[in-house]
Fold this sequence. Notes:
Layout: E1 11-18, E2 24-32, H1 41-64, H2 76-98, H3 102-115, H4 127-145, H5 151-161
Antiparallel strand pairs: 1-2
Amino acid sequence: xxxxxxxxxxxxxxxxxxxxxxxxxxxxxxxxxxxxxxxxxxxxxxxxxxxxxxxxxxxxxxxxxxxxxxxxxxxxxxxxxxxxxxxxxxxxxxxxxxxxxxxxxxxxxxxxxxxxxxxxxxxxxxxxxxxxxxxxxxxxxxxxxxxxxxxxxxxxxxxxxxxxxxxx
Length: 168
């Protein structure tokens, strides 16, 4: 049996992002059903860029940072609260990733240490590692703000709880 179908007119849009030194940062080959007289190729590329950022945000929420799909929330309100905290944390992490100041670099290094994640050679941080470290920092901040622990007490607890850890 042979089915006839209508052909869909498609337009090929090739986009290349190049930095100031001429290096290719990203390259996309896109197909669009929007005609040239409807939307320029530049706008199609810009929309794809924004779409990819949204996809990256959801990936961070779902699997690399907050693992929202694994949470067992009981109500819509609980889900909304968790989503709000997660979204705010992602915004903080993305802002930090874009900051190359010396203070931001120190903060990133601390968050990666708190995350417990290893980085590939030459990579100082990733969004998932920064988010995991940020959430650990929020928990630590909450602990310090709601108990009578000071740094010395925390160190004594660490010595007892982590007898084989390297405490240099």
